[in-house]
Amino acid sequence: MHTYRFSHALGYTLEQMSEMHNASFQGYFMPVEMMPEMTADFWRINAIDALRSVVMHDEAGTFVGMARMGTRGKRGWCGGFGIVPAFRGSGASRLLAEQMVRVARASGLATLQLEVLTQNERARRLYERVGFTVTRRLFGLEIASAALPAGAPVHVERVAIEAVLPQFLGSVHPCWECELATILTIPAEAVVIRGSDGQFNGVIVQRGQRVSILASFFSSELADADLAALLHQAAGEASGLVVFNEPEESPCLARYRALGFSEFFSQYEMLLTL
Question: Could you give the CA distance from residue 193 to residue 20 in angstroms, rounded to a whole number?
Fold first, then answer.
């Protein structure tokens, strides 16, 4: 039987944390290879707390896995839970999950949340065994820019994010990685159409090879052709648009699907009250 030891993540270099991430997510459903610069951005943007993040080794000092934990006030978020392939199926994941919950509770957090891909039933059952319950589903959608329907001739503007905050804050509660605390730490912009009442219909986006839509706020009066025009402007010269973790209760979900967006992943959001 293996004996394990746990520590926090303080003291590791960005290179070491990247290596630990890559090792523990090897062969995962949607693996993401992390470089040190990506690791630094991820920890900063998502408020990862090194003292609450759990690193796991065996008695010989071999790295087993890690659970990163972000914090915002009394709320905690597991921003990555992984076990290296050699230790999967050994019971190590249950011990790591229990330690993650123990650390969250002992450090004064009131809640701990996470996301797990819907096809990863084994991980979902693990989280349920340590007390998490499913609260909702989140969807990832995508479309090639060339596949967007033709838009109407409407006036589309780029405005400061601060101008749309009242509508953003009044929309469906976003996932952790699309909360205002995240958006304000990254280079993002708002692309909008003004309604007759002066209110905005729009999206908050982050630019890259594909444009990531971080938040959406559409009124029921916004025609599909106007929405298509808005998204064409948001896409610009990018190859496509992606929507990450749109909540199942969001009215925007049906609007995106009606325009031809296709689902490329979904996951459960889970919550544990500590």
Answer: 44
**pLDDT at residue 171 greater than cutoff 90:** no
Buried b (16+ CB within 10 A) or exposed e, 150-168: ebeebebeeeebeebeebb
Write out the residue range of the structural domain in which residue 81 sits: 4-131
Structure confidence by residue, pLDDT tens digits, 77-111 = 999 999 999 999 999 999 999 999 999 999 999 99
Radius of gyration of the chain (CA): 20
Residues 176 and 256 in one domain: yes
| Joined tokens for residue 15 | 């290179």
Distance CA 113, CA 93 (A): 17
Instruction: Calculate the CA dihedral of residues 181, 182, 187, 193 and round it to 10 degrees.
Output: -80
Of 81, 102, 131, the one marking the end of a domain is 131
Which residue type sits at 166?
P
Is 273 a domain residue? no
